[in-house]
Amino acid sequence: MKLKTLTTAILFATLPATSVFAAALDRSGQSMAAFLQPNNYFEAGISILDPTVEGVESGETPTRRNIEDMADDYYFPSAALKLQLTDNISFGLLYDQPFGAKAAYHGENAFVSHPGADTVLPQQKLDALADAGKAKIQAYMQSDAAKQAIGALMQKGLSQADATNAVLKEASKPLVALATGLADANASLGKGNTNVEVDTQNLSLVFGFQPTKNINLYAGGVYQTIKGNVNLRGTAYSLYNGYDANIKETGGTGWLAGAAYQIPEIALKASITYRSEIDHDVNAVERLSVESALDRHPAVLAGLGVTAEQITAMKTPGKTTITTPQSVNLDFQTGIMENTVAFANLRWVNWKDFAIRPYKFGKVSEAIGNLVNRPNGFNLVEYSDDQYSVTAGVGRKLNDKWAGNVSVGWDSGAGNPVSTLGPTEGYWNAGLGVQYSPTPATFIAGGVKYFWLGDADAQTGAQAGESHRKVASFSDSNAIAYGLKIGYKF
């Protein structure tokens, strides 16, 4: 069937807010649709997300307070230029912001500091340390060594009671030093609220080769920047209550490759695009607010079983590596009747192999790992599953100036439990878009999507990998996304 004058490729740009709230840190969806437009083409757009993510303390958090909306609004732009240099060669320049996060906790909960009440370790851990210290002292006082020490003091003229008290006082010094140091460390914990902001930018240079009018082979390089800030606060993070990381903007390179097949007469187009992972060796400026207190009281780290080598490693600067994930996009569209097309997008992102472990954060986690059954340390953020998402819909040209579409989408999420810094698991969504073309060469498109975000249990880095552990639960979350895009064919 021939779709007459329907500008099919542009019709699918009707709803700019295509992903904006996907699994893990995924934002833009990394579409190649602009590069696959016919002839010369330019577009620019902006997407805005307004999420609501609320929950309640649960699991290992001893209280059960409500958690106010912790998901901040955000927006991100996109732009693309595609040039058909010859009948067989095309060039594209694509800009987007593929990954990111923005969230902040508020109110009275385990993710907001409570000076005077927060502790560097959960109270049960501190009680266990105190009980172990007392048991050690009792065992020593019953030993031959203690009896000999008491006897030696009695020979110097002390009574048995005074000699026993003197030996007991000496044996208790490590426990007293530990208690004093822990009190100082507790007073040094962070103030404020947990928040995170991560931003990335992608610039892709793509060349395409069209051996026939039906086939398009393309590949190119990708330059990506990343920057961010993380501040951990509250009892949920124990020793890390007061941890700050500032990731200065740095760049890395990767590549993409794909192929497309089309039959313009029936608006059929199918494409598959692979994007590589990208490594970033970032300069993460890290600070742990209890560090000075631990320096003043070496008995604390000694009492926690931290070795001298581990202390040295904690203080030695080092690089942090962040690797953004590889992905595959599969896009399909076809005419189903005159002036009407059906379309679908499938996306896979390799979040299962993604993790962020800032250098000092990691060294501290290795030093205290035995206390939380993680002897090899743990990550700040990690995910247990890959992301799969599907969007499908129908677009229709209403007349020479107006077109619209409707769509539905599903996202698997990247595993549950999830990070406390992004506590949702996947979504369902429904979208509506409209496009106005004042001239055959230009259009303005707008769209809106509503997201039903998946319920999720949230866990800290120290709990990740153990599905039964959590510190909070989030349910009935939602988001609404808006998009605006302009385009020009020339």
Which helices and strands occur, and which strands form pairs?
Elements: H1 8-11, E1 41-52, E2 55-57, E3 66-67, E4 74-84, E5 89-96, E6 100-104, H2 123-141, H3 144-155, H4 160-187, E7 195-212, E8 215-232, E9 243-263, E10 268-275, E11 278-282, E12 284-288, H5 291-296, H6 298-303, H7 308-315, E13 320-324, E14 327-337, E15 340-349, E16 355-356, H8 359-368, E17 381-382, E18 387-397, E19 402-411, E20 418-419, E21 427-439, E22 442-453, E23 456-459, E24 472-474, E25 478-489
Parallel strand pairs: 20-23
Antiparallel strand pairs: 1-4, 1-25, 2-3, 2-24, 4-5, 5-7, 6-7, 7-8, 8-9, 9-10, 9-12, 10-14, 11-13, 14-15, 15-18, 16-17, 18-19, 19-21, 21-22, 22-25, 23-24
Helix pairs in contact: 2-4, 3-4, 7-8
Q: Can you walk me through this structure?
A:
The protein has helices at residues 8-11, 123-141, 144-155, 160-187, 291-296, 298-303, 308-315, 359-368, and strands spanning 41-52, 55-57, 66-67, 74-84, 89-96, 100-104, 195-212, 215-232, 243-263, 268-275, 278-282, 284-288, 320-324, 327-337, 340-349, 355-356, 381-382, 387-397, 402-411, 418-419, 427-439, 442-453, 456-459, 472-474, 478-489. A 14-stranded antiparallel beta barrel has the order 1-4-5-7-8-9-10-14-15-18-19-21-22-25. A five-stranded mixed beta sheet has the order 3-2-24-23-20, with no helix packed on it. A two-stranded antiparallel sheet has the order 11-13. It is an alpha+beta fold. It has two domains: 8-109 and 196-424 and 452-481, Beta Barrel (Porin); 121-188, no CATH class. The chain is elongated, with a radius of gyration of 29 Å. It starts with 7 loop residues before the first helix and ends with a strand.
